[in-house]
Amino acid sequence: MNVLEGMHWGEARLLEKGIDNARFDADLLLARVLHVSRDRLYLDCDLNLSEQEEANYRESILRRADHEPLQYILKRQEFMGLAFYVDQRVLIPRADSELLIEKWLELVMAEEEQGQDRLIKAVDLCTGSGALAISMAHYYPKAQVFGTDLSQDALDVARENAVRLGVSVQWRHGDFVKPIQGERWDYIVTNPPYVTVQEYGQCALEIFREPSMAFLGGQDGLDFYRSLSEETRSLLNPQGKLLMEIGWNQADAVCELFRMKGFETQVFPDLAGRDRVIIAR
C-alpha cells in the first residue's frame, strides 16, 4: 500500500461506517502514522508504507470506524492555539469554550488598564483536561489559577498538560465547590455538565466514548447551575465574577436562577450566534 492507496482505502472504510469528514480523518491518521504533516502526504503520494506502518494505519482506521473520537486516537486537541493531550479520561475541549477564555481575558485586561494592580485569583471548576485553567495561566500568567475536578483521572491529565505547556496551575480534587469553599475568588470560570438526559440519548456515537459525567446535567440540564447559584455568593469577592458556558437554549433559565439570588447577568453568543457564555456578578 502506498500513501495514495492508503488515503483512498481509509476514506472508503470510514464512509462505510457513516463517519463525517472521512477523507480528512483518514488523512490525519495516516499522517500521524508516518510522522508527517497532512500536506506532505500529497507530495509523497507514491511512497510505500512499511508493513508496520500499514498495520498501525489499519488499526487506527478501524478504531475511528468504530466511532472512537479522532482526538483520542491522535491523543491531541487544539484549544486557544495550544496543543492539549487528551484521552478517554477527559472531555475533548471544544472551540465553543474558547469564548469563556476570551471574555475572561477581556475582563482581566480591563482591570489592568484601569490601574487595578492586584493578584487575581481564578478557579476553573470541572477542569477536565485543564484546557480552561491552562489557557488562563498561559495568556495571563499574572493570575493565580486553580483547577478542580471530581475525577482524579482527569486531574492527572490536566497536570500532564500543564507540565507539557509550561504553565503553573494549582490542582484540587473534589466534588463541585467543596475544594474551594472557605475562600474568596475574583473569578470562577466553568464549563459544567449541561446536557439533558433526553439530549444525551440522541447524541452522536462518538459522544458516548467521552466521560458521561462531563455531559449530563440532570433531567433539564440545569442541576449544576442551580447548585452554583446557591453557592456563588459565598465564594466570590465583592467585585468577583462568574463565567459559565451554557447550552444554546439555556440562557433565560440560567439567568433567572442567578437573578433570583441578586446577580446581574450578561449573555454572549458564540460565532454561530447561539447563546454560549453568561457572566454573573
Description:
- With 281 residues, the protein is an alpha/beta fold.
- The chain has two domains: 3-66, Helicase, Ruva Protein, domain 3 (Orthogonal Bundle), CATH 1.10.8; 89-280, Vaccinia Virus protein VP39 (Rossmann fold).
- The protein is built from eleven helices and nine strands.
- It has helices at residues 3-16, 22-34, 38-43, 51-65, 70-74, 98-113, 131-139, 152-165, 197-201, 223-231, 251-259, and strands at 77-79, 82-84, 121-125, 144-149, 170-173, 185-190, 236-245, 265-269, 275-280.
- The strands form two sheets. It has a seven-stranded mixed β-sheet, with helices on both faces. A two-stranded antiparallel ribbon has the order 1-2.
- A hairpin with a 2-residue loop joins strand 1 (77-79) and strand 2 (82-84).
- The longest helix is centred in the middle third of the chain and has 16 residues, at 98-113.
- The protein is elongated.
- The termini are far apart.
- The mean pLDDT is 97.
